[in-house]
Amino acid sequence: MLLRSLLFMPGDQPKILKKSEEVNADAVIFDLEDAVSLANKDKARELVAEKVSNLSETAESSHKEYFVRVNSLATGELKKDIQVVASKALTGIMVPKIETLSEVQKINEVLTKIKAEKELTEEIGLILLFESAQGIWQAPSILAKAEGVLAAALGGEDLSLDLNATRTKKGQELFYSRSRLVMAASAQKIPALDTVFADFKDNEGLAQDAKLANQLGFAGKLAIHPGQLKTINKAFTPPEEELEFARKVVAAYQQSEEKDRAVFEVQGNMVDAPVVARAKKLLEDYENINK
Q: Is 110 in a helix, a strand, or coil?
């Protein structure tokens, strides 16, 4: 599953929802939470339910993954959200403000019950959104035991508030949290997704932020505006010079196997098994992008 760019779309805006098939995102997240006022929750549920009910014919042809961000368990709205939007066309549900394993277990119980009621046999996974100090601190133990998790995502705005940290474009205040979440997700072989970059008019700042996220090990990044997608996709697509080097590494490795050598040189770089493995993965990832 390719998740370089994931675009939030407010669930109470029909004109915006209508464009979900057109945007150049790997995934679309119909939002019932932060992007929707309390007064518009019911309207958003109705609009998103109608949208996902019509996705069956378009989801496969658009080559996108579709998610719904529901309201947190603590709000009392989560069950109602899932009851309305659960559909065979959905890849999964994004659940915000995760802090404990018991929350994930309760959410899975709700999802399982609703799927049975609606006779849905398709898998509907979870993206867990970690947005607090408690959530980030508990992420390793939660992800180690939680079931049905497709990805772990970072909510930098709420997290900064909880930490009483100053939110900056360079993101130094999130460095530890980012690294901890990537480590926790990687240990469970699931992708980590980086937080949004709030200034959607600053493409240069976004490019730097996305590049850092990629370097830290994130698989992709959340977006709040379609204008951010091209920059994010580029940041999480291997550049040609890296691909060319990877091809040379794999070719040299195949030759070295014939000579029984474990270590060899490519363009002045000493290459061993981890470098070969990284080169192969880079080429596989690029192939997935271009499917």
A: helix
